[in-house]
Write a structure and sequence with these properties.
This protein has 218 residues and is of the alpha+beta class. It has five helices and twelve strands.
């Protein structure tokens, strides 16, 4: 008799738990959403950074150049349309990569001066995903002192974090749409990756002027 009462009690408890669990609303796991904050920014070893948010990496047969993760995490959807051809001589600050972010044109500037040796044809008309790996933009011929005045190591990390603080101020001054407010910021001042894509108006051009132009390199 006692066993039967225990069994009935267990069956009732399990049934109640099933009913309650079905009535609960699914919880959204915000941690699964990629977040843009200072802990997600890093300066890999061997990379030299410019405030144009492009990098240079000296290698045995040249200097590899690409777009940094700050630009990628801020803009989110960067589709490269064209890269200056091999043989082209450029100065630091010249536009070398033309891209598109949600239908709007944006330019990335060279972190160094020199002659373009080759380009990454796989990136042309492709989406930037791997900023420090397969999605480099071009290589340049080595020249003496060409990576001077770029940020390296701890200086690069500090520069990127300073840029993030500036980015927060930039977003605070931007004109948010009601829809954008709910998807761009979390508690603590973190941002969803690609936050710029959630804003209206000329925000992409404004971002270029503030973070990718000669103005930012002064």
């Amino acid at each position: 008799m006692v066993f039967l009462l225990i069994l009935i009690t267990l069956i009732i408890a399990v049934t109640v738990e099933i009913i309650i669990s079905k009535s609960r609303k699914p919880v959204t796991n915000s941690a699964a959403v990629p977040v843009f904050n200072k802990s997600s920014l890093h300066a890999p070893e061997g990379f030299y950074f410019s405030k144009f948010h492009t990098w240079a990496r000296p290698e045995e047969d040249g200097v590899k150049v690409g777009i940094d993760s700050f630009a990628l995490k801020a803009l989110g959807n960067i589709r490269v349309k064209s890269i200056l051809p091999a043989g082209q001589k450029v100065k630091k600050g010249d536009s070398i990569i033309e891209a598109e972010v949600h239908g709007q044109k944006i330019n990335f500037r060279s972190p160094v001066s020199g002659v373009i040796k080759s380009i990454n044809k796989n990136l042309c008309n492709g989406k930037l995903n791997d900023a420090y790996g397969e999605d480099w933009g071009l290589t340049m011929e080595k020249e003496p002192n060409m990576i001077e005045k770029l940020f390296f190591g701890s200086e690069a990390s500090h520069m990127l974090k300073t840029e993030l603080r500036k980015f927060k101020d930039f977003l605070n001054q931007a004109s948010f749409t009601p829809q954008a407010v709910g998807v761009t910021m979390y508690d603590g001042g973190n941002f969803v990756e690609g936050v710029i894509s959630s804003l209206d108006g000329n925000i992409i051009k404004d971002f270029e002027n503030e973070f990718l132009s000669e103005k930012n390199n002064v």
